Structure prediction request, 319 residues.
Amino acid sequence: MSKIKVLDGGFSTQLSTHVGEKIDGDPLWTARFLVTEPNAVFATHLDFLRAGADIIQTNTYQATIDGFIEYLGINEEESLEIIRRAVDHAKNAVNVYNKEIENYTSVTNRKPLIAGSCGPYGACLHDGSEYTGSYGARVSQEFLINWHRPRVHALLEEGVDLLAIETIPCEREADAVVELLKEFPNARAWLSFSCRDDGKSLADGTSFRETAVRCYKNALPGQILAVGVNCIAPQCVTSLLKGVNKGNTEDFIPLVVYPNSGEKYVVTEGWKKDGEVLSLHEFIDEWLDLGVRYIGGCCRTYATDVKRIKSKVDQRRAT
Prediction:
């Protein structure tokens, strides 16, 4: 179990502890703070490192050329520079953290990695379609490849250790990013999907298992580090993951999971509890047994949640 990596938590959630401004509902979401509150972005990364994260993600999920041009009134090159600076904020946090732990022998996340966060096309549309995948039927694979390319290139050029291609809601976009990655043969990435709570489907209704396994196998050898799910209620995760390695007689496929808190987001009301909300920590052992090798939290999870995940994972690493 030594190969398990602990991820960070919900960036917007932890960022909210440093800023008093409204985050949810902004068309640029946390990406706006790369311009308005860069010190808070740095501090959020440092929070997660201090909580024990082995991998932190850049604040670029909703950092897109389209969004910056429309909502900040800047050009493409200026937009790409903001994305590059996002990597620098994460690097600065890692450097500060490494200096903090120099004299501590019990620290287990001594060489934290930086994952370049790449959200789906639907995130920049600001219409919730990252949770439906509805655009997959009306845009081509070529369009999606071209749309993702500039940010992927900028993140890799600036020196991220890997890519976090996340909240992908439709099979067309999943296939597109796998093809795009082949243009960067030295890049490594995990591929995480937005899924329904039916235990079997992507947000667009196609099979999670079939799409995830196909993407893993169609990628360049070793390029996809893991496939999995994010931003889904914890109680919906296991049924999705069970199907990936079950009956897989070929190579074992590593899995990634970082669910939300289990609350639901209502546009007009914000985050609300809908029935019983189960903590993701209750499921960690069963997820690790299914082959999860990358585990963290998504929306409504804090650095304190990462610390709890880290404690549980450290227990498993010791066995």
Remarks:
- The mean pLDDT is 93.
